[in-house]
Input
Amino acid sequence: MIEEIPTVGQLLKSVATLLSNEISPALAQQDLQFKVRIAVNVLAIIEREWQQGPQVAEEEVAMVNALLGTDNHDLKALRAELAEAIMNGQYDDDLSALATRLLPNACSRLSIDNPLYSTLLELQK
Amino acid sequence: MDNNQILQRLTAVVEKHLGAVTIDNARPLTGGAASSTWKFDVVGGDGRRSLILRCAETEEQISTGLQKSLEAQVQQAAFVGGVPAAEVLFTLAPSDQLGDGYVMDCLAGESIPRKILRNKEFDCVRPNLAAQCGSILARIHALTPPKELSVLTAAEQIRRQAADYRQYNQPLPVFELALRWLERNQPKQNNLTLVHGDFRNGNLLVTPEQGINGVLDWELAHQGDPMEDLGWLCVNSWRFGNRHLPVGGFGSREALFAAYEQAAGIKVDSKAVHFWEVFGVLKWGVICLFMCKADMKNDICSVERAAIGRRVSETEVDLLTLLAAGVES
Output
């Protein structure tokens, strides 16, 4: 990753700060303030994805390859393949063991989307 | 139809049903994604009464909800049967030119979950809410469902969720796992009863004096397994951060089940409730996927819908937590 200054994270933070500290207080309509809050939250998702996304995707690729016994690097194709294997009953013997194996990466993806989600905080205890 | 036109037509239809009255304070209410809702006062001989007009949204039908006339019929049956629900005064006719809808009493109470869970004025009633849910659900499940209501078995509902999710062509192994588990762990058919279909924190009107004063949003009512309502009420998304209180973020399963059993005179099938909770998490996940995809035009959707699309991973973690062995849920 090339680290230009300001970094992507710094650029996003500057926009988020503008929206929260200057734009939002100037808005009369409550529903617009609400939308701005969501927009700030979306910027935070982008920042986390920029920082953690590549590693989380790599982790998922490795996990699915290990499950399927394949060596593929296309995450979308891997997800489709695993989804199909599950649909076809290949994991019926122990679905709860499969859930246990999928959980860590699902948590990593959730850490990007919503790191304060209650279940995630509970699992991290 | 602009707001002035709605108001004119509303005045006409209210006069038709309630006689010469004046309409005052009419304003549209936000909330209710698939409905357009107005609150207004009628002022006449008997004084002032607050009413609600609930109409189906014409432009973008999100839910596969009931026709409003049937929804009104279910809600009125609940009101008559002693369920805290708003009394329906009349249903709109096509000649009223307001679309598909009905007019009901406006009940007092707070419906915003975070306020119910955090505001001090609800401290007194909060510990009783789970038990109140149990006895209200028992009462709903004892009502005779209108024959027009579809029967939605577990198998049929799984089939529908699978079809909805697969149409987006976005394979999610966790959703597949959940679907597979649901197919293989269907509860044996409990009695067919009236099912509210969306009984959760967010559709309950709560007052600081009485606790639950109203049950809202009857548009997903159907005939089915009564345990479905208990499971949906426990879905983590409706706990709004209070994960340790599985019933709506305000109470325990034990309190819910005990009150239900006492009022219904039958034992709660806790395995079936667990099944419906898993189903409910998946259903909410498919809705999140749908909200974002359905809104997408030329690869762009609104920021609210975009954010909801990223809530899919919350449901993935909740599903895996429910299904993985040895993880506390």
Chain B has a mean pLDDT of 92. Chain B is about 40% helix and 15% strand. Residues 270-295 of chain B form the longest helix (26 residues).
